[in-house]
Backbone:
């Protein structure tokens, strides 16, 4: 079965500096990978997804992620953090043969002024 | 024009009660889900429902039962509520089952059992 590991439970950056949220996945088949964001007391919003097309995926709000099969990674990056980026971020994996989206434990991003 | 809507947003109830959470999607999607988010923010799938096929996560107690009156609705009914059921419950939908199709989530229902 597929699974994801988010390597940092909490990341803190200063406004205007780069963001890196790390995610490693495990999958028996060609996976689809997603990043979702959850702002406080809100639902989950899709940031971007990888579905076996281009390995560098661009999402909303300036975020992007690169699928690296050799490293089984799908790290999320943003060149310059904004205060509004402060939220919980979830890496998610699904496989072609089931409905099950497996969530990572989440990474809380704090952005300091 | 909320795509996936859940009601209520907050629910406080006593142990032993039976309660329901409603979910509706207006996206025309074929598949709907219920997820539970615990106090540590970890999200775990409870059910997925597609074309009248229900797939149940085996760790979900049978006190939890999804009910789908039609393709646009998947309600969650919980019997004999316990303290450990306190969590945020998210409904979601996707166009079809399988990979590559993202899920669209509702705003969540925060259930507190006292």
Residues:
């Amino acid at each position: 079965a597929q699974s994801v590991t988010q390597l940092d439970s909490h990341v803190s950056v200063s406004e205007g500096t780069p963001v890196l949220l790390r995610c490693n996945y495990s999958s028996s088949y060609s996976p689809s990978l997603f990043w979702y964001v959850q702002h406080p007391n809100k639902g989950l919003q899709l940031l971007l997804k990888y579905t076996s097309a281009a390995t560098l995926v661009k999402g909303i709000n300036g975020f992007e992620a690169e699928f690296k099969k050799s490293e089984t990674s799908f790290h999320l990056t943003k060149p310059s953090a904004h205060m509004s980026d402060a939220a919980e971020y979830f890496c998610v994996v699904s496989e072609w043969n089931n409905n099950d989206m497996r969530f990572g434990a989440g990474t809380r991003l704090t952005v300091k002024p | 024009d909320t795509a996936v809507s859940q009601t209520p947003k907050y629910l406080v109830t006593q142990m032993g009660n039976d309660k329901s959470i409603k979910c509706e999607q207006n996206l025309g999607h074929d598949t709907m889900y219920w997820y539970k988010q615990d106090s540590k923010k970890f999200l775990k799938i409870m059910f997925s429902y597609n074309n009248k096929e229900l797939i149940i996560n085996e760790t979900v107690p049978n006190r939890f039962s999804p009910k789908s009156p039609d393709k646009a609705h998947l309600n969650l009914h919980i019997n004999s509520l316990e303290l450990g059921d306190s969590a945020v419950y998210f409904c979601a939908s996707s166009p079809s089952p399988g990979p590559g199709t993202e899920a669209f989530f509702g705003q969540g229902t925060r259930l507190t059992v006292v």
